Amino acid sequence: MLVIGNLRVAGDVSVTSLLRNCAVALAMLFAGASHAQTITFDDVMAAPDDIALNVAYARQEVKSGRLQQAAAALERILLVQPNYDSARLFYAVVLYRLRDLKGAVRELEKLEGRPLSPSQEADRVRYLGLASNQAKSLRFSARYTLGARLDGNPGRFSEAALAAGLAEEDADGALVASSRFRVERDIENGRGDLLFFQSNGYLNEYFDTATADLIASRAKAGAVLHGINSSYTPYAFLGVSYLQHERFRTQYGGGLDTAFTLNSQMTLHLDGYAKYDDYRVTDFSAIGDLRDGWQVGGRVALAYRPTDKQSFRFTLHGRDKDAKFDGYSYDRWGFRFDSRTLFGEGRYLALTAAYSDTQYDAPDNVLSAAQARDDERLYLRSAVGAPLATIFQSADIELPEKIGSIVAQIGVSYTNQNSNIPLLDYDNLSGDILFTKRFNF
């Protein structure tokens, strides 16, 4: 049995094996670390015209996340050998990563008509499109995800409810989909500031368990303002949620997200928000406006990117909800850890672990008239993904770019809630497969 705080994870769910698999995956990541001898800047300066040395140094610096040094090395190569097309393409990609979009477009246009390999030409066209689009003052982007999920306990029923015959634990599949559409308009002040509008949508439609069907949408508008090694994003939003195909909640409010660059590998995020919850009476809930009220919350996150292929993010968060009825007012705190590892050719591994504790101010008189709820939740997830082009390439099948750029992801998630009210305890183990397509125009 696993215990976090007062959270107990039932032994009949294979959490131990899930954690073990995550640990093995992490060990494999670090086991593959290169032990090649490091090339120093002094080595390069001792032989500035050594093309092979400069290329190796540039690749080393990119792998370590030091893109400025890589760009300088590639620029030296091109001064000595301007017809080195592979180095120019590499240089253009590094400039794109550095957000020097005009420079990236310039270098990629120089390669037009050059004797590149088919894969190099495909990369040139792709990065030219990306850099040209992002260099526009008015930009549009969209992302669409479609897939399926299988839940072991879709109704989130407790062992107590199952034992009392109040529910049946049946695995169920669901159709899942999400979307994001974003418009950005540069503010012509030379600092990279911009205005934005963004809309998000989410669909979770079970085949049999209608009680868990969810549709949600949210619109968000604001600005991104830049300071010295910092950015500030004030915004306002409006969201609507449908449960069991009935509109049950509207949320509106605003917030401020801030980011401070501590060094080339580390960024500190400080975010705060306030939003109002407006609930409706529905066929499945007569509580209605007793849950209405403001909630105020914030997050502190540290993002760390030790190499160009590895990133970590640790987040502490908290919120306070003040509802009309104290039985629905609560305080929540928690933490979340995210890890993302890139393996080249678009392949990646994403790991997440999260924990939260929600303490209500008073009994709700529905689930309990004697004690206020105290819910602890543990969430674990592991997912791997890759573009379809990379997946089919292993079978020597070349897909058209529009299809090959679709990213396929397979994930496994585990959620456990432990409450002082037994009817609210539950475990759920799920697996999903998702396909994501991105557009920039």
| Topology, number of strands | 16
- For the report, how would you describe the main beta sheet? 14 strands, antiparallel, barrel
* Ends apart, CA distance between termini: 51 Å
Principal-axes shape call: elongated
**Strand sequence of the main sheet, in spatial order?**
3-4-5-6-7-8-9-10-11-12-13-14-15-16
Catalogue the unreliable spans.
10-16, 22-35
Structure description:
The chain has ten helices and 16 strands. It is an alpha+beta fold. The chain has a 14-stranded antiparallel β-barrel with strand order 3-4-5-6-7-8-9-10-11-12-13-14-15-16. Strand 12 and strand 13 form a beta hairpin. Helix 5 runs antiparallel to helix 6, helix 5 packs parallel to helix 7 and helix 6 runs antiparallel to helix 7. About 5% of the residues have low confidence.
Summarize the structure.
The strands form two sheets. The chain has a 14-stranded antiparallel beta barrel. Strands 1-2 form a two-stranded antiparallel ribbon. It contains ten helices and 16 strands. The protein has helices at 15-31, 41-46, 51-63, 67-80, 85-97, 101-110, 118-134, 159-163, 388-393, 401-404, and strands at residues 2-4, 7-9, 138-151, 172-186, 194-206, 214-227, 230-243, 246-263, 266-279, 293-307, 310-323, 330-344, 347-360, 374-387, 407-419, 426-440.
Topology:
Layout: E1 2-4, E2 7-9, H1 15-31, H2 41-46, H3 51-63, H4 67-80, H5 85-97, H6 101-110, H7 118-134, E3 138-151, H8 159-163, E4 172-186, E5 194-206, E6 214-227, E7 230-243, E8 246-263, E9 266-279, E10 293-307, E11 310-323, E12 330-344, E13 347-360, E14 374-387, H9 388-393, H10 401-404, E15 407-419, E16 426-440
Antiparallel strand pairs: 1-2, 3-4, 3-16, 4-5, 5-6, 6-7, 7-8, 8-9, 9-10, 10-11, 11-12, 12-13, 13-14, 14-15, 15-16
Helix pairs in contact: 3-4, 4-5, 5-6, 5-7, 6-7
